[in-house]
Amino acid sequence: xxxxxxxxxxxxxxxxxxxxxxxxxxxxxxxxxxxxxxxxxxxxxxxxxxxxxxxxxxxxxxxxxxxxxxxxxxxxxxxxxxxxxxxxxxxxxxxxxxxxxxxxxxxxxxxxxxxxxxxxxxxxxxxxxxxxxxxxxxxxxxxxxxxxxxxxxxxxxxxxxxxxxxxxxxxxxxxxxxxxxxxxxxxxxxxxxxxxxxxxxxxxxxxxxxxxxxxxxxxxxxxxxxxxxxxxxxxxxxxxxxxxxxxxxxxxxxxxxxxxxxxxxxxxxxxxxxxxxxxxxxxxxxxxxxxxxxxxxxxxxxxxxxxxxxxxxxxxxxxxxxxxxxxxxxxxxxxxxxxxxxx
Length: 343
Ligand code: ASP
Known about the structure:
binds aspartic acid
C-alpha cells in the first residue's frame, strides 16, 4: 500500500510532504544514544542535566527519567509540577505522574496529595504492586507504606498569590458550586496570570547507551481544575507511552484532548508504521484535532517522541511549545517544533 493511501486509511491525517514539516530530517542521529528529551525549555533546562548525568555514565533510561522528574518535583517555584504548583479550584495541590520502562512495565499515581515525589511513588506502583494506577487516598496510603514522608499541606507563596487572584476574578464560591449547574461548563482558565498557557507538565523520554527506552511524566495538572480531576499525565497511552521495539512519546497540554485520542500511544503507533518521530507527532496532532469536540481557540497540545534509532522530533497544535534535547553533540538544546495551526 502506498504511504498516501495508508495515511488516508489512518483517518484524520492528511498528507504533508516531509519538506513542509519543519526539517524533520535534520534530526537524523549521528549517534544513537544516549539521548533525552523533555517538554518545555524552562523545565528541560533544569531536568535534562539530571538525566544526562545518569545516561552519560552508562546508567539506565528509567533511572534517568525518574531523576529528571524528581528535579522538577523538588522545584517549589514551579507553577505546574510538584507541591509548590498551582492548586485546584478548592485550593488543594493534587499531583499526577506516570513512568514506563523498556520492559513495558508501567506505574502511575493520580490525584495524589501531600507527597513530594509522585514519580517515585509511580515507580513503586510499577515495581512493588500488581497494579498500574493508584489514585487519591489509596495512593497516599501506599506512598506512606513505602516510606515516603507526608509533607505539610501548604501552598507555595506564588501559588497562594495566584490562587487568591483567581478566586477574586472567578468569584468562585464552593458553597454554590458551579459544578452543580448542569447547564454551565465549568471555567478553567486557558491562560495563567503570568500570560502563560495553563499547563506545563514535564514529560521526559530517554534512550540509554544500551539502546533501551523509558519515559516519565509528572504534573499538578491544570490550575483551578475541579477537585478530583485527573488529566492525561498518569494515563498510560495518553500522557506517556513506551514500546522498546519502536519508540517513546509523551505529551503536554490540555489533557482531556490527549486522553480522547490516546495521544502518546498514537504517536508510537505512527512510528511503528515507519514515520519519523516528527511526522508521528504531527499526525497525532491532526488526529486529535479531527476528533476534538472543543473549540481549538483554547487548546494547546505538544508531543515529543524518540524512536529506537535515536531519531527524535516534536509537534504542537499551536505555536509556543518547545522542548529540550540532550545528546553528546547537543548539550541541553532548546528546540521549537512546528505547529499545525498558526495561532
Ligand atoms: N497535560 C496536563 C493535564 O492535562 C496539563 C499540562 O500539560 O500541564 O493535566
